[in-house]
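Q: How would the structure tokens look for this protein?
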Amino acid sequence: MKPELFHLGSLTVYGYGFCILLGVVAAYLHFYVNRKRIGITEDQISTLILVCGISVFVGGKLFFILEDPVLYITEPQKWLSNLGDGFVFYGSFLVTILALYWWFKRSGFVFWRLMDEVGIAGAFVHGFGKIGCLLAGCCYGLVCEREVGIVFTDAMSRARPLNTPLYPTQIWDAMVIFGAIIFMYIWRKYKQYDGQVFLIYSIVYGVGRIITEEYRGDEARGFLFDGLLTHSQLIGIVVVLFSVIFHIKSIQNKTNVLEVDNTEDKGN
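A: Here is the predicted structure in token form.
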């Protein structure tokens, strides 16, 4: 597509970075517009964005290195040479959850209640990031028929092979994510327990990612069980299963609480 969007004098504005910036702005605006309802200050929003940014970088890079640890042990210079690229979404996802758990507890926020808002805000960054992937050519698909594929021609594109139709996996992922955002905004008014909106994001994207991974052409992301699953598919399965179990348990707990309340009312 277009790895370099435009130039401002000697400054080059890259498509991927620009899209991530748009996602961060959208995430900030989500928190800012809803700050009174959420009960969060502007300074806390800035800190939250910073915590997420550091966690996303550290987690994504760590899981990327763990996909081929031998390479980075034998060639430690690659730690710095590949610092600006090579990230795994689920690494960012899991490490960010742990970091936010620590920060929310430290700041006095109810973890799952605020995670519902983080799910929406984070999805904005993720969705725009996938558009950035399309521009940069990363996360590209397998070779396919021209009728359903997209062709990358820019020599700077990460997609391979060039000038050949590839499955539009970046577009599919972006559609799943933005679709999840719409559903989360709608369901936020009807949620049955804190954390349910965030679980929508986990489940919808998890299922979508498991499917789109089958059409990805960048084999460097790593495979398991003799090629049966990719790392992201395995993590996606675990995340979806955990989310479904959490949902079932939360509904059961809510039902039990309502039954107890009804029993007490009758006793009175």
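Residues 17 and 132 are 7 Å apart (CA to CA).

The longest helix spans residues 231-267.

Upvote if useful.
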